[in-house]
Amino acid sequence: MRSVITFFIAGLESPNSEFAHLETAQSRIAQLAIDPILLHKVATTKQDKASGAMEQPVKYALMEDVHALPQWDSTLDKFCIRIFIPEGSVLLQTNHVYTRNQWLYSIQWRRNLYRYRRIIELSSGRPEVLLKETKCLVEQVKCCPLQGDNLSLKAVLLISRLIEQIFAGNLPKTMLDPVIMCIAPLLDTVGTVTQVSPWLSMYCNDHPRSRLIDEVLSEVAQQTLKKTMDFGKYPTARIFVQDYLLAVSSQNNGVERIKNFVNSAHSLSSCCPHPRVLPNLVTVSLAAVHALYDQQQQQQNFSPKKSTENGGGDVVSLPPTPPYETPSLTFTDDEDRREKLRSEFEDWRVPLSVLLQPIPFPDEVLCEPAFARDFGNGVLRRLAADGRCEIHLSLLGARENKEGWFHLVCPGGPVCSDDGELFSSMLKTLLHCCCRRKKFLQTLNAMLGPLQLLALRENEPSMEALCHMLEFEVVEGQDLKVQMITALQSTPQGKKHYAQLCDRQIALRELQQKGGPRKLTLPSKSTDSDLAVLLSSGSFGNLEWLSLAFTNVTSSCADYLIKLPSLRYLNLWSTQFGDTGLQLLSEHLTKLQVLNLCETPVTDKGLSTLKSLRKLNLNSTQLSAKTFLVLKTELPALQEVDVRYTDAWCVEDALLT
């Protein structure tokens, strides 16, 4: 049933006088309950324009009083609100008590806003009145039955005008702290504090040791980090958080206070429930670093002017600016500490590594000794020690032929401050996890000098890297190979690594000698160790056909499979062979023609490099339709492919039809 609203108007007669019926309006009740600024807007049932007694709007400035009338007839659903104006009174009739209360509270709220706005404009010389009215307004917002961010936002906008007048000097500075204390409860309910952020930033800069920094603004800064979706749209909110952190760092035990702030923003749970906190913290830190060094560059590029004061000649005069080196290093240390704190949380390391992979720092920052020491030993060392591939792989370049943190911490790089210890830690993690591949080892050719130097200092990861480079034959030129062998044989530990390399090479030659079976099938339930024992028991230089179907082999067996140069058929049906092993096969078994990966956990990686493949079985895998189309173009010799029960199955059917 449609809700109907009827308007009545009465003069200054007695309450028993008759009411003149005006018009009937339908719908828009919810909108008017939230924002009934002009009461005549509801008169739009049959006419585009209000007419009669409601032709002119009833403004909030003219309302003297508003109250609800008791229901005079219990048998009728008639609920009214009386609005007193100078010319008489206006009655709003509804058929719902809930709608009547919505209208009543909304009109009262708008009248209070108008009244407070007038007080700000007319009572600039009476601070005690402004403080009293500000407290009353905040209490009304907290106790108002109406709901919605619009209530708090309107109040914040009005109170921000008061703060603006305080900073402009029109009101005494002693009002600033009480006003901020009053507005604090409202800032928690507002989506962003953009309207009041400039004044909060000025407060942090002018009063960095105020008690309100911890008592009030700490919670406001946390809410800003949690609720702001894009600091690009709200730069004033970002600047406020930046100034707040700077004010906290300038206090006693500033580092400990920042640590407590970050811990509180993360929450006590192992996983932060607020996904925007970390990106916003990184944005604030990077913006602060860029602003700092932009300012430094502007000061360095300042063009001195010639002074002719007192009849002097060409005397160069510079602006009286304080030394810049000390504050720059101090602030950079603070940013390093913040990044270090963020890297302590395991759930934040994955997104943090993604954000830091493009190296979003200016070159001047990377050359700072303090940055290289604190950021490298803190954040980068934690990322390097993490065993998750998505984290330590972010230390490499974001794309091919682009340097990453791994290259910058190399001895001689701009971020190397520990004689290669951090570089060795990264190298060890990468080699022992997922980068003991020819593609990665080829990139180490540009670091042969530092690797040989570290090998002479008996650095284990560097000696392992040199041995792998010799084993996979990624170094061109006999002279370079001799230098690498000489560096390995210069230390007892290096001799041990080189002896193990020679043993592996001898075993490889024996394995690849002509002879042995041409076809081989392992029993079901065989493991990686069973395959290793089998291949080390004789020569398999003639092995062309190998079936590991329904065994328990994993990607680890790829280290043994790549030693079979004549292999052309490989069956891995229903095994746990994954992407890591497939990528290794694609780099070494270039003669492979038939590959069965049915019911394996492989995805889209590593398939495009198998140029000689003729038959490929990807039945029941995670192959995507996009990768399937790419494979058809990048594998010219491919004659038969099985993509049943994959996302590419529908694409194949469409191509056939």
UniProtKB/TrEMBL annotation:
Annotated segments matching region Disordered:
297-336
Membrane spanning residue stretches = none
Any one Pfam family here would be PH_21
User: What superkingdom does the record give?
Assistant: Eukaryota
* Limits of the C-Maf-inducing protein PH domain: 47-120
> Which protein are we looking at?
C-Maf-inducing protein
